[in-house]
Amino acid sequence: MINMLINILYKLFPTHPIPDPEGLRFPNDWEARESCMFLRGKSWDNIQSEELRLHWDAFSWLNATYFHYYLPSVIFLSLQEIKKYKQICNIELSIDSVFYFIAMEDVFDEKWKLFSLQQMKLVRIWHTFILKQEHNPELNWHMQNMNNLIDRLHPKMNKISD
To answer: What is the pTM of this model?
Structure first.
């Protein structure tokens, strides 16, 4: 399952072109600049889990373009950690941050606007996989939040069979 998800991830989220690093400059916000500096000029599959562990809040500063490009790094690294360690080790807070963007009703819909139907479908599969892997007691609540997000962004999505 993990290898299949990684293969699909590479098909749906190209590593190039990398978004312009100038878009990650935050001249008036030191905290944002420091949190996102590690992303500048890197492809999403060259981000290291240690970087996400240290800068777990980076995704909160990203606009839709950068969020869309770099979210696959969280998916990729979480799958790699499960494959290697049988659990999430270093990027729990980054995953929680992404789950927060899913759960906050329409507050963060702007971050998700560039995701295609196929990309959202993969995010949903990954989201469910992580929740089940963690034996999350709020599984149904989280899954409903994901479905609500998809319904708002791509109403036809949930009518497509998985």
So the answer is: 0.91
